[in-house]
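Supplementary material to the annual report.
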Amino acid sequence: MPYVNIKITREQEPITPQQKAALIKGVTDLLVDVIDRGPKTTVVVIEEIDTDNYGVGGETITVRRSKEQ
Amino acid sequence: MPYVNIKITREQEPITPQQKAALIKGVTDLLVDVIDRGPKTTVVVIEEIDTDNYGVGGETITVRRSKEQ
Amino acid sequence: MPYVNIKITREQEPITPQQKAALIKGVTDLLVDVIDRGPKTTVVVIEEIDTDNYGVGGETITVRRSKEQ
Amino acid sequence: MPYVNIKITREQEPITPQQKAALIKGVTDLLVDVIDRGPKTTVVVIEEIDTDNYGVGGETITVRRSKEQ
Amino acid sequence: MPYVNIKITREQEPITPQQKAALIKGVTDLLVDVIDRGPKTTVVVIEEIDTDNYGVGGETITVRRSKEQ
Amino acid sequence: MPYVNIKITREQEPITPQQKAALIKGVTDLLVDVIDRGPKTTVVVIEEIDTDNYGVGGETITVRRSKEQ
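Predicted assembly:
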């Protein structure tokens, strides 16, 4: 029955439906494996965030990406 | 003063502004009725999530919908 | 299948298990009534927050309570 | 290392990337100044919410805006 | 750099620090495996919720547990 | 009217009510300064998380703290 919320940036190469399905399956399985919480009502919500709206270390990901290049 | 966050899937037939207003009014009233928390600063945020991004029981809602048909 | 998170302050007179159950039932019913989202996998999580940790209008609820008296 | 989530309405005049960067920098600095939590892994996520989806006092921001005019 | 929030119920047999570490490691690895998002600033927060405060299908987990026995 | 959620670890030297009030005041003021969002219904919620329950880079803060010493 756990609830999981994943926030990730929306990048130029978008996350595919297959990747999203793999994240949802993977987290649900992990919770069964590690703490044996039944998967039937496990809810996983993925939220994609613009790189302007996500900050790490006081900078937006947009700025961090531009410095990496 | 409570804060309420509602996450629901974005379906083909979208939730109307009237339905959203009814959810916000309904939750705010419920909190007054059940625990008598003054409604003036109650905040309700509705977030609509793509069916590819919402998983229950290890599967995305997209996949669950396709199996129901 | 919606997910609802309610954050409310933990007051001197605590919210009873009966009140929590009424909130969970009430929100779940509201989502069925307004947008007809099946209740079986609706998840509601109530989080109780110390009044020192909850702020409205730039002040903690602790301070607001003390001014009301 | 703190995590901060800011939910604000998406208005007709959108929040600029510069304003978002200023919010992220400002919150990160505030956490260093007030509680001395190292900024390197501080994460700030800004989510913009439609005014139909954000309610205060039992009304959507859309309705509150229309009454103010 | 993703952010993950896991909400699970606090049961009589508590989740151990080792299990929490395994959940944090497992989710972080999963995000690298599936979408190749660098793990250094991935943040995972586990929140334990009383069974009176967690509802599924309109009932608290406390009530659901009592019916299962 | 923004909503802000701050998650920080609960350390041996706890965050004082004065520090919490300063965080709430500081974030509320920042939102006025940067995006001119009226402070009266701004809500700030601070959640303190055990170091076993907060992970960065695949490790709990408890483990990271022990390595720093």
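The interface with chain D takes residues 7, 47, 49, 52-60, 62-63 of chain A (CB under 8 Å).
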